[in-house]
Task: structure prediction
Amino acid sequence: MRPAKTIVVLFGMALLAAAVFGCGHGEGKKEGKGGEGAVKAAFVMEPIVVNLADEEDRYLRVTLGLDIADQKEMETVKGSVPMLRDAVLTLLSSKHYDDLRSPDGKAKLKGELMKTLNAALKKNAVANVYYSDFVAQ
Result:
């Protein structure tokens, strides 16, 4: 596929992900039986594109969905988006293509992302990280 077509396809996928997951909007949900349990919130970050640390021209495009520990922490996350994007960009740009190719590499990266995001927030607000878009070339 030509690079121009690849970009169009990736952009279309990002728009679809934004429509499905709600770009950057948190939605609370109750967990547990009968609506009991802790309130959790979902937050989708804007797509991130970084050059990888490889010598060849390789890049990564990723859209992250975050499970936020509770609705109260959602306000902290929303107010910290530039800082969170910076932390994610710094981590991702240090990665090599071979680190990200395998399912194990992607799973390891999820753990690193969660640790990085919580360290940036100085609290354990992020309960889980999901990929809604992940393209490495």
User: Anything to note?
Assistant: Helices lie at 3-21, 71-78, 81-93, 97-100, 103-121. Residues 19-37 have pLDDT under 50 and may be disordered. The beta strands are 27-30, 39-44, 48-51, 59-68, 126-136. The first strand starts at residue 27 and ends at 30.
